[in-house]
Amino acid sequence: MSAQAIAERAPSADSKAAPTRRTIQISTAGVARGPLDLADPGDVAVEMQDVSCCYGTFRAVRDINLTFARREVTALIGPSGCGKSTLLRSINRMNDLIPGARTEGRVLFDGQDVTGREVDAVDVRRRIGMVFQKPNPFPKSIYENVAFGPRINGYRGNMDELVEECLHRAALWNEVKDKLKQSGLSLSGGQQQRLCIARTIATSPEVILMDEPCSALDPRATLQIEELMRELSEQYTIVIVTHNMQQAARASDRTVFMTMGDDRSGYVVEVGPTNEIFTMPKQRLTEDYVSGRFG
Ligand SMILES: Nc1ncnc2c1ncn2[C@@H]1O[C@H](COP(=O)(O)OP(=O)(O)OP(=O)(O)O)[C@@H](O)[C@H]1O
Ligand SMILES: [Mg+2]
Predict the structure, then answer these.
(1) How many other CB atoms are found less than 10 A from the CB of residue 213?
(2) In the Cβ-directed half-sphere of 65, how many Cα atoms lie within 13 Å?
(3) Which residue, judged by its Cα, is nearest atom 3 of ligand 1?
(4) Cα(82)–Cα(110) distance, rounded to whole angstroms?
(5) Which of 34, 87, 110, 194 is at 20 to 30 A from 132, Cα to Cα?
(6) What's the pLDDT tens digit per position in 101-143?
(7) Vertex 211: Cα angle to 124 and 277 (nearest 5)
(8) Nearest C-alpha to atom 6 of ligand 1 is from which residue?
């Protein structure tokens, strides 16, 4: 599918009413384009400042300066190995769990640098949740998968109501309401992934990071997850890594294109409204990638 065809299927970057966002002027004549970075300063959930990530002496990503706006879906695209997962994990300090991994620079979350040793990484991960490529429910009941996080966080409200609400929001309730005591592992792959999303939102994160959440799913389950992302983005900041260009075009407001240099170190080539990245990218590297000539 051509970039144009992909983009025609893409939702407008402006399609969602968000009062605090600037209006984007996209001129099809290629003149008088609006600003690339759409986030109003007051509406930024996460800001990465000069972030580099290393594994031992290898610098996997370098000099990342990005903002992620509240209530937007941002897609990270780029060839395999360019550091998308590494960048994503640096946002909620998941890289800390990898021996030898190191993050330089600052990651501001609600204006506070969360990379410092004095900051509780577990709390950061509660507020910035993550959904992985392979659905990974706990070997517990469907109910317990959702209740687990709130319980260890000392949730004092009505747990039954919370579980139901999260399963509703993850568009799974109707399929599981009669079998909440069954194992989460008994569900289909697409259902398991929605269960993992329910589990993630149960601890009330503000940001949800998704690393190729649909790569193990069939097209129908993929569309369900994409619709879900759209709904969740009314409330959450979502950052999704995907190799699926149609998915990036359909599901995201903004797209970040990364690639890697001769030293295999990944960097950001271009950031912009998704429509723009797919129809009139400013960089040749981006154009080659989104049109399938590279990567
Ligand atoms: N735990 C690790 N230890 C050492 N090097 C790593 C580790 N994880 C990733 N890397 C290296 O860092 C670079 C970026 O990897 P990363 O997984 O972030 O890329 P990616 O863009 O997510 O790739 P893909 O699209 O294949 O998932 C690669 O060169 C990879 O080999
Ligand atoms: Mg990856």
Answers:
(1) 28
(2) 5
(3) 55
(4) 27
(5) 110
(6) 999 999 999 989 999 889 999 999 999 999 998 999 999 999 9
(7) 110
(8) 55
